[in-house]
Amino acid sequence: MRSRRPGGTERFRRYGGRLRLGGRYQWQLAVVGAYATDSGGYWTGSAYVYTRSGTVWTQRARLTPPDPLTEREQFGQAVAVDARTVAIGALGHGVSGSVFVAQQ
After folding, report:
1. Dihedral angle of Cα 2, 63, 85, 66, to the nearest 10 degrees
2. What is the pLDDT of residue 36?
3. pLDDT for position 30
4. Cα–Cα distance, 2 to 9 (Å, whole number)
């Protein structure tokens, strides 16, 4: 098993704090939450999508909230994946949190 971390210069606080594997065929898709990254403000968060081919995992996307979040919204605090659908939770968004859904 190898350690993976996305490229770039952003600080990856809490990267891997949440991880889910899924896909149609035995763990072909991984979603990694990084809810404490400063993607749009202090602790706004982000999530990373990886696909697997054989034994190689490749980063396919970096997901950030579709609307500007305020500080401490923690996008990526919860992650889920099913076949081609990814759900990302933002614990601090709004009064009781929000879920954002992306499909491939």
Report:
1. 170
2. 80
3. 86
4. 20
Question: What is 24-68 written as a DSSP string?
Answer: SSSS-EEEEEETTS-SSSTT-BEEEEEEEETTEEEEEEEE--SS-
| Domain edges within the chain | 15-103
* Chain segment 34-88, per-residue pLDDT in tens: 888 776 677 788 888 888 888 888 998 888 877 766 777 888 889 998 877 889 9
The Cα 15–Cα 34 span in angstroms is 4
Closest to 69 (Cα-Cα) out of 20, 30, 18, 35: 35
- Exposure of 60 in the CB half-sphere (CA atoms within 13 A): 16
Query: Which pair of structure tokens corresponds to residue 23?
Result: 């896909």
